[in-house]
Amino acid sequence: MSTQERHDELRAIVEERFASSIDVPADFFPREAERIAAACWAMARRFHRGGRLLAFGNGAAASDAQHVSVEFVHPVIVGKRALPALALTNDSAALSVQRAASDPAGPLFARQLRVLARPEDIALGLSPDGNCQNVLQALAQARAMGLLTLGLAGGSGGAFAAAQLDFCFVVPSADPLVVQETHETLYHILWELVHVFFEHEGLL
Amino acid sequence: MSDQPYDPAADSASDYDRLFYPFLFAGQSSADEVLAQVRHSTIEKCREVIALRRATLARQCDRIVEAGVAMAHAFAASATLFAFGNGGSTTDAQDLVADLLDPLLPGARPLPAVALTNDIAVVTAVGNDVGFDNVFARQVIALARSGDIAFGISTSGESSNVLAGLEQAKKQGLLTIGLAGYDGGAMVRSAAVDFTLITASDYVPRIQEAQATVYHALIAVVYAVLADADVPGRRSTS
Fold it and tell me: What is the complex's ipTM, to 2 decimals?
């Protein structure tokens, strides 16, 4: 095969990836816009009551938990107020202790929530397939403590779909990378549009 | 609240607010209007990221292939990738590293990658003692070898610590890859950066979302090239 032919093959791989990253959000956001708006409103009311966002996920989704957290704490857009948010994935000492526990899937994030969370807070759990047990357990813990619960999942939604969350967003793609990119746009939008409700104090 | 002492000043302030700022106290119809506005914005933002991904593909597809091939050749010759950025770009750097260490593509082998923001002791030590501009360059000096890959992410293309990390990496003979938004900023003008891949937007959230697609596409190219039998530098597996 010539170099040019191989280059064209690799171009096709790139084009295929971009096509998924275009088609999936194009379907997802118009369909979910109403629930996204409702979630922004619910989050804004929690922040207005002094609540904080507590975000968590495993592996690549841990980086998303940290990403959504930094958006709220240090807004990149001039004039937006700083809002309290913590990622439960930042403390390597705490995480390694919990991973060494006898049931590593069990206590990871739920244990942190039991200690850190307040009833007015917001719990946001991410799982590309909706089946991360430690994320589900933490969301159940959050629900029992009275937190607003948001789950960001993908594929068929897995166990998230049946988890009685206040808001469960399922990106219907089997490709975890596309699910993650769509989650990134989703939590950016949640962050951007929560602020709209602060301009309407009567709604908080 | 009933347990607060009555404050006539606060009460009259409230009446004043109600008179002159009625929108602050609007009822359900206003809620419907705001929710409609937020729904509309959601769909607009989705359109923006889709348009940015289309534009990035149109302008950068060849460069993404070339950068991915160069990265694959470096990995085939035992390179380690060092990824770095600030804020949300830090988490994207960590995401790239996670995708390489624990690849999701079927049959893909884990590749050596380190995020230079993981060690908060090092980041704060260098930041406090020398300055924040040096937090990545210092680690490149300590950790990187010739032939490794430096991967810097900056939405503006202007982050001085990211540029310093890439410049130090080039001095040490690394392959240097940068992701930048806007017009590529100082990164695209730097001779130290072998490949600057630009997602041309002036809005940071959309830049980051399109950059995620760029590095996910790079990973796909890397693994496709590594699967070729004739990758230069590929070591015998026997």
Answer: 0.92
